[in-house]
Amino acid sequence: LGESGTGKDIIAQAMHNASPRKNNSFLAINCAALPRDLIASELFGYEDGAFTGARKGGNVGKFELADQGTIFLDEIGDMPLDLQASLLRVLEEKKVMRLGGGKLVSVNVRVIAATNKDLETEIERNRFRRDLFYRLGVIKITIPPLRERPADIMPLAENFLKKTCRRFNRPLMSLSPEVIETFMNYDWPGNVREMQNVIEGSTQLAANNEITYDLVSQYITPKTSGPPPDTETQTVAVVEKQLILDCLAKYKYNKTEVAKALGISRRTLYRRLSEYEIM
């Protein structure tokens, strides 16, 4: 459990890497990013001719591919109710049946699920199955937002900076004292994902080996003492809009690349573009 951008996918990968299944597959599915009619075929696979447009010879689903490994179901709270019933059956029986097929296939898969929603509230609103909630909730881990763990801010920033410099073949860079102060005083509404994007953008714009305040100020605005709620919300919206505009320019309006860089689905990106009247 955790807000968007807190690094739930990284935690899931780390759990897999530390488990006896580490030498087998780790597969991730974003339940919010896939169209409703594709989720079942992605998870469970399908046989030849199962539906219009089905690949000749059928297709193996993620559960079969992840046999003896781990499958990570991100944004499980967005999974349609009818598919929740199918998932529950797979978890209980440890068998899957491809769409259009009649044969049960045994699978041994560790399932890790994540959401930024309050699933108990979703249950009360009849949008999430209570039995699936209990089946998945054997072990619960809550990841606090970055604003509640300030001691992690600089270690994370330095780690992202090292990785970004290596990725773009830049000499190891440093953060100026003003940037460090800004980072420590910022609320990070986008959490770890936002920090990663800020550092990546600033690194590419830097003319020397130091990330200065003028670079990061294009992406974030330090919090002021006691802003009214509507002002704070507006500030976050302005920052998010600017991030989207920067990524659109950087990736030449390639929506797939922009969504990937921002760590969101294409559907969420299009919703943001509409909300901010960008396109």
Salient structural properties:
mainly alpha, elongated, 2 domains, three-stranded parallel beta sheet, 10% strand, two-stranded antiparallel sheet, 279 residues, Rossmann fold, Helicase, Ruva Protein, domain 3
Report on this model:
- The protein is mainly alpha-helical.
- The chain folds into two domains: 8-136, P-loop containing nucleotide triphosphate hydrolases (Rossmann fold, 3-Layer(aba) Sandwich), CATH 3.40.50; 146-275, Orthogonal Bundle (Helicase, Ruva Protein, domain 3), CATH 1.10.8.
- It contains 13 helices and nine strands.
- The chain has helices at 8-17, 36-44, 62-65, 81-93, 119-124, 130-136, 153-167, 177-185, 191-205, 213-216, 229-250, 255-262, 266-275, and strands at 26-30, 45-46, 59-60, 70-74, 95-97, 104-106, 110-113, 174-175, 210-211.
- The strands form four sheets. The chain has a three-stranded parallel β-sheet. A two-stranded antiparallel ribbon has the order 2-3. The chain has a two-stranded antiparallel sheet with strand order 5-6.
- Strand 5 and strand 6 form a beta hairpin.
- Helix 7 (153-167) packs across helix 9 (191-205), helix 11 (229-250) crosses helix 12 (255-262) and helix 12 crosses helix 13.
- It is elongated and about 60 Å long.
- The two termini are 33 Å apart.
- The model is unreliable at 224-229 (pLDDT under 50).
